[in-house]
Specification:
256 residues; alpha/beta; Rossmann fold; eight-stranded mixed beta sheet; 8 strands; globular; binds adenosine-5'-triphosphate; binds magnesium ion
Protein backbone atom coordinates (compact mmCIF):
# COMPACT_ATOMS: atom_id res chain seq x y z
CA UNK A 1 0.00 0.00 0.00
CA UNK A 2 1.27 3.43 -0.92
CA UNK A 3 0.25 6.62 0.89
CA UNK A 4 0.32 9.62 -1.46
CA UNK A 5 -0.18 13.13 -0.09
CA UNK A 6 -1.46 15.94 -2.29
CA UNK A 7 0.09 19.20 -1.04
CA UNK A 8 0.42 22.78 -2.25
CA UNK A 9 1.17 25.42 0.34
CA UNK A 10 -1.15 27.92 -1.32
CA UNK A 11 -4.87 27.38 -0.91
CA UNK A 12 -7.36 26.91 -3.70
CA UNK A 13 -4.93 25.66 -6.34
CA UNK A 14 -6.70 22.31 -6.85
CA UNK A 15 -5.50 19.76 -4.26
CA UNK A 16 -8.94 18.33 -3.52
CA UNK A 17 -9.80 18.30 -7.21
CA UNK A 18 -6.64 16.38 -8.13
CA UNK A 19 -6.91 14.01 -5.14
CA UNK A 20 -10.53 13.08 -5.90
CA UNK A 21 -10.09 12.65 -9.66
CA UNK A 22 -6.88 10.66 -9.23
CA UNK A 23 -8.68 8.33 -6.81
CA UNK A 24 -11.46 7.67 -9.32
CA UNK A 25 -8.98 6.89 -12.12
CA UNK A 26 -7.08 4.46 -9.86
CA UNK A 27 -10.37 2.75 -9.05
CA UNK A 28 -11.29 2.52 -12.74
CA UNK A 29 -7.98 0.72 -13.27
CA UNK A 30 -9.04 -1.88 -10.70
CA UNK A 31 -6.95 -0.54 -7.83
CA UNK A 32 -8.26 -0.45 -4.29
CA UNK A 33 -8.09 3.19 -3.31
CA UNK A 34 -9.11 5.27 -0.33
CA UNK A 35 -9.03 9.06 -0.29
CA UNK A 36 -8.90 10.74 3.11
CA UNK A 37 -9.71 14.36 3.97
CA UNK A 38 -6.84 15.60 6.13
CA UNK A 39 -8.08 19.20 5.80
CA UNK A 40 -10.21 18.59 8.85
CA UNK A 41 -11.04 22.14 9.89
CA UNK A 42 -11.93 23.44 6.39
CA UNK A 43 -12.98 20.26 4.62
CA UNK A 44 -14.14 20.01 0.99
CA UNK A 45 -13.48 16.41 -0.07
CA UNK A 46 -17.01 15.28 0.82
CA UNK A 47 -18.44 17.98 -1.45
CA UNK A 48 -16.60 16.54 -4.45
CA UNK A 49 -18.36 13.17 -3.91
CA UNK A 50 -21.69 14.31 -2.45
CA UNK A 51 -20.77 12.94 0.98
CA UNK A 52 -20.54 16.33 2.71
CA UNK A 53 -23.66 15.81 4.84
CA UNK A 54 -22.89 12.30 5.97
CA UNK A 55 -22.90 12.08 9.78
CA UNK A 56 -19.88 9.75 9.91
CA UNK A 57 -16.53 11.38 9.25
CA UNK A 58 -12.86 11.14 10.09
CA UNK A 59 -13.36 12.83 13.46
CA UNK A 60 -15.32 9.76 14.63
CA UNK A 61 -12.26 7.64 13.88
CA UNK A 62 -9.83 10.05 15.53
CA UNK A 63 -12.02 10.22 18.63
CA UNK A 64 -12.21 6.43 18.79
CA UNK A 65 -15.96 6.34 18.07
CA UNK A 66 -15.70 4.42 14.75
CA UNK A 67 -13.32 2.41 12.61
CA UNK A 68 -11.93 3.76 9.33
CA UNK A 69 -13.96 1.24 7.33
CA UNK A 70 -17.18 2.51 8.96
CA UNK A 71 -16.59 6.07 7.74
CA UNK A 72 -15.21 5.13 4.29
CA UNK A 73 -18.13 5.85 1.94
CA UNK A 74 -18.17 4.06 -1.40
CA UNK A 75 -18.22 6.15 -4.57
CA UNK A 76 -17.81 4.02 -7.71
CA UNK A 77 -15.29 1.79 -5.97
CA UNK A 78 -13.42 4.63 -4.23
CA UNK A 79 -13.50 4.67 -0.43
CA UNK A 80 -14.01 8.29 0.58
CA UNK A 81 -13.28 9.37 4.15
CA UNK A 82 -14.74 12.85 4.55
CA UNK A 83 -14.07 15.37 7.31
CA UNK A 84 -16.95 17.14 9.06
CA UNK A 85 -18.55 20.17 7.49
CA UNK A 86 -19.06 21.70 10.96
CA UNK A 87 -15.76 23.29 12.08
CA UNK A 88 -16.70 22.91 15.75
CA UNK A 89 -16.84 19.14 15.30
CA UNK A 90 -13.23 19.26 14.10
CA UNK A 91 -12.08 21.49 16.95
CA UNK A 92 -8.94 20.17 18.62
CA UNK A 93 -8.85 17.02 16.52
CA UNK A 94 -5.38 15.47 16.32
CA UNK A 95 -4.37 13.63 13.13
CA UNK A 96 -1.26 12.06 14.62
CA UNK A 97 -2.88 8.65 15.27
CA UNK A 98 -4.13 8.35 11.68
CA UNK A 99 -1.04 6.76 10.12
CA UNK A 100 -1.20 3.79 12.48
CA UNK A 101 -4.91 3.36 11.77
CA UNK A 102 -4.36 3.54 7.99
CA UNK A 103 -1.55 0.99 8.14
CA UNK A 104 -3.70 -1.34 10.25
CA UNK A 105 -7.16 -0.95 8.73
CA UNK A 106 -6.39 -0.16 5.08
CA UNK A 107 -3.64 -2.72 4.64
CA UNK A 108 -5.43 -4.32 1.66
CA UNK A 109 -5.61 -1.09 -0.30
CA UNK A 110 -3.24 -0.28 -3.17
CA UNK A 111 -3.35 3.49 -2.63
CA UNK A 112 -4.35 5.85 0.15
CA UNK A 113 -4.53 9.43 -1.07
CA UNK A 114 -4.39 12.25 1.46
CA UNK A 115 -6.12 15.51 0.60
CA UNK A 116 -4.21 18.01 2.72
CA UNK A 117 -4.76 21.46 4.19
CA UNK A 118 -3.16 24.57 2.67
CA UNK A 119 -0.43 26.38 4.59
CA UNK A 120 2.20 24.78 6.80
CA UNK A 121 0.31 24.37 10.07
CA UNK A 122 -0.44 21.38 12.22
CA UNK A 123 -2.83 19.69 9.79
CA UNK A 124 -0.41 19.88 6.87
CA UNK A 125 2.51 18.67 9.01
CA UNK A 126 0.51 15.70 10.32
CA UNK A 127 -0.32 14.68 6.76
CA UNK A 128 3.33 15.08 5.79
CA UNK A 129 4.31 12.72 8.60
CA UNK A 130 1.88 10.11 7.28
CA UNK A 131 2.77 9.96 3.61
CA UNK A 132 5.57 8.30 1.72
CA UNK A 133 5.15 10.19 -1.54
CA UNK A 134 3.93 13.69 -2.30
CA UNK A 135 2.38 15.38 -5.29
CA UNK A 136 2.73 19.18 -5.22
CA UNK A 137 -0.07 21.11 -6.89
CA UNK A 138 0.63 24.64 -8.07
CA UNK A 139 -0.91 27.13 -10.39
CA UNK A 140 1.55 28.79 -12.82
CA UNK A 141 1.98 32.04 -10.86
CA UNK A 142 4.62 33.37 -8.50
CA UNK A 143 2.48 33.23 -5.34
CA UNK A 144 1.59 29.53 -5.70
CA UNK A 145 5.10 28.60 -6.83
CA UNK A 146 6.60 30.47 -3.87
CA UNK A 147 4.45 28.36 -1.53
CA UNK A 148 5.43 25.24 -3.47
CA UNK A 149 9.09 26.09 -2.74
CA UNK A 150 8.25 26.31 0.97
CA UNK A 151 6.28 23.05 0.90
CA UNK A 152 8.96 21.13 -0.96
CA UNK A 153 11.55 22.27 1.57
CA UNK A 154 9.46 21.16 4.54
CA UNK A 155 8.46 17.83 2.95
CA UNK A 156 12.07 17.17 1.91
CA UNK A 157 13.30 17.83 5.45
CA UNK A 158 10.70 15.35 6.70
CA UNK A 159 11.97 12.66 4.31
CA UNK A 160 8.94 12.62 2.01
CA UNK A 161 9.69 11.70 -1.60
CA UNK A 162 8.36 14.32 -4.02
CA UNK A 163 6.89 12.59 -7.07
CA UNK A 164 6.59 15.88 -8.93
CA UNK A 165 4.57 18.99 -9.64
CA UNK A 166 1.07 19.14 -11.03
CA UNK A 167 0.62 22.49 -12.75
CA UNK A 168 -3.08 23.20 -12.55
CA UNK A 169 -5.46 25.84 -13.95
CA UNK A 170 -3.13 26.54 -16.85
CA UNK A 171 -4.57 29.07 -19.32
CA UNK A 172 -1.58 28.87 -21.66
CA UNK A 173 -1.05 32.65 -21.46
CA UNK A 174 2.33 34.33 -21.94
CA UNK A 175 2.31 35.95 -18.49
CA UNK A 176 2.07 32.56 -16.79
CA UNK A 177 5.15 30.68 -15.64
CA UNK A 178 5.94 27.94 -18.14
CA UNK A 179 6.44 24.37 -16.96
CA UNK A 180 10.16 24.74 -17.78
CA UNK A 181 10.37 27.81 -15.53
CA UNK A 182 8.50 26.04 -12.74
CA UNK A 183 10.85 23.06 -13.00
CA UNK A 184 13.86 25.38 -12.86
CA UNK A 185 12.53 27.15 -9.74
CA UNK A 186 11.36 24.06 -7.87
CA UNK A 187 14.06 21.66 -9.11
CA UNK A 188 11.36 19.00 -9.50
CA UNK A 189 9.71 17.64 -12.65
CA UNK A 190 6.30 18.84 -13.79
CA UNK A 191 4.41 15.53 -14.06
CA UNK A 192 1.09 16.91 -15.32
CA UNK A 193 -0.18 20.13 -16.80
CA UNK A 194 -3.91 20.50 -16.38
CA UNK A 195 -5.69 23.27 -18.27
CA UNK A 196 -8.11 25.66 -16.62
CA UNK A 197 -11.51 24.25 -17.53
CA UNK A 198 -15.01 25.28 -16.58
CA UNK A 199 -15.85 21.58 -16.65
CA UNK A 200 -14.25 21.28 -13.20
CA UNK A 201 -16.69 23.85 -11.87
CA UNK A 202 -19.63 22.15 -13.59
CA UNK A 203 -18.58 18.80 -12.12
CA UNK A 204 -18.23 20.29 -8.64
CA UNK A 205 -21.68 21.86 -8.87
CA UNK A 206 -23.02 18.33 -9.47
CA UNK A 207 -20.74 16.96 -6.74
CA UNK A 208 -19.06 14.38 -8.96
CA UNK A 209 -15.41 14.27 -10.05
CA UNK A 210 -14.65 15.59 -13.53
CA UNK A 211 -13.34 12.23 -14.79
CA UNK A 212 -16.87 10.88 -14.24
CA UNK A 213 -18.70 14.00 -15.47
CA UNK A 214 -16.66 14.33 -18.66
CA UNK A 215 -14.31 11.39 -19.07
CA UNK A 216 -13.03 12.23 -22.55
CA UNK A 217 -11.99 15.87 -22.31
CA UNK A 218 -8.42 17.21 -22.21
CA UNK A 219 -8.17 17.74 -18.41
CA UNK A 220 -9.55 14.25 -17.80
CA UNK A 221 -6.93 12.74 -20.12
CA UNK A 222 -4.20 14.64 -18.26
CA UNK A 223 -5.41 13.17 -14.97
CA UNK A 224 -5.45 9.67 -16.51
CA UNK A 225 -1.84 10.20 -17.64
CA UNK A 226 -0.91 11.37 -14.14
CA UNK A 227 -2.50 8.27 -12.58
CA UNK A 228 -0.66 6.04 -15.06
CA UNK A 229 2.67 7.15 -13.53
CA UNK A 230 1.80 5.34 -10.32
CA UNK A 231 0.78 1.99 -11.85
CA UNK A 232 2.47 -0.37 -14.28
CA UNK A 233 -0.07 0.21 -17.02
CA UNK A 234 -1.39 3.04 -19.17
CA UNK A 235 -4.85 4.04 -17.96
CA UNK A 236 -6.73 5.79 -20.73
CA UNK A 237 -10.38 6.07 -21.75
CA UNK A 238 -11.21 4.65 -25.16
CA UNK A 239 -11.44 7.50 -27.66
CA UNK A 240 -13.49 7.45 -30.86
CA UNK A 241 -12.57 9.62 -33.89
CA UNK A 242 -15.02 12.33 -32.73
CA UNK A 243 -13.39 12.46 -29.28
CA UNK A 244 -9.93 12.78 -30.84
CA UNK A 245 -11.02 15.76 -32.96
CA UNK A 246 -12.66 17.40 -29.91
CA UNK A 247 -9.48 16.99 -27.85
CA UNK A 248 -7.30 18.26 -30.70
CA UNK A 249 -9.49 21.38 -30.86
CA UNK A 250 -9.37 21.79 -27.05
CA UNK A 251 -5.55 21.80 -27.26
CA UNK A 252 -5.54 24.29 -30.13
CA UNK A 253 -8.04 26.65 -28.51
CA UNK A 254 -6.16 26.85 -25.23
CA UNK A 255 -3.06 28.01 -27.07
CA UNK A 256 -4.88 30.96 -28.61
N1 LIG B 1 -8.05 22.97 -13.74
C1 LIG B 1 -9.06 23.66 -13.19
N2 LIG B 1 -9.80 24.52 -13.96
C2 LIG B 1 -10.80 25.25 -13.41
N3 LIG B 1 -11.16 25.18 -12.13
C3 LIG B 1 -10.48 24.35 -11.32
C4 LIG B 1 -9.40 23.54 -11.80
N4 LIG B 1 -8.93 22.83 -10.76
C5 LIG B 1 -9.68 23.14 -9.69
N5 LIG B 1 -10.61 24.05 -10.01
C6 LIG B 1 -11.60 24.69 -9.13
O1 LIG B 1 -10.89 25.53 -8.23
C7 LIG B 1 -11.55 25.54 -6.98
C8 LIG B 1 -10.55 25.15 -5.88
O2 LIG B 1 -10.16 23.81 -6.11
P1 LIG B 1 -9.84 22.84 -4.90
O3 LIG B 1 -10.90 22.92 -3.86
O4 LIG B 1 -9.54 21.51 -5.47
O5 LIG B 1 -8.51 23.53 -4.36
P2 LIG B 1 -7.72 23.18 -3.01
O6 LIG B 1 -6.28 23.40 -3.29
O7 LIG B 1 -8.10 21.85 -2.53
O8 LIG B 1 -8.28 24.28 -2.02
P3 LIG B 1 -8.02 24.36 -0.42
O9 LIG B 1 -6.63 24.87 -0.28
O10 LIG B 1 -9.06 25.31 0.06
O11 LIG B 1 -8.17 22.99 0.12
C9 LIG B 1 -12.74 24.60 -7.09
O12 LIG B 1 -13.88 25.36 -7.40
C10 LIG B 1 -12.36 23.70 -8.27
O13 LIG B 1 -13.49 23.20 -8.95
MG1 LIG C 1 -8.90 21.29 -0.67
Amino acid sequence: MEIIGVFSGKGGVGKTTIASNLAVVFSKAGKRVCVVDCNVTASHLGLHFNFHLTPLSITHVLNGRAELVDVAHNFEGVSVVPAPIDPYEAHGVDLSSLKKLIKKELVNYDFVILDTAPGFGREMLSAAEMCEKAIIVSTPDIAAVTDAVRGIRILGDMGVEIEGIVLNKVFGKKFELSSGEVEAILEKPVIAEIPFSLKFLEALSLRIPLVIYSEKCLPSLEIHALASRFVEEKIYPELGPGDKIKIFLEKKLRNL
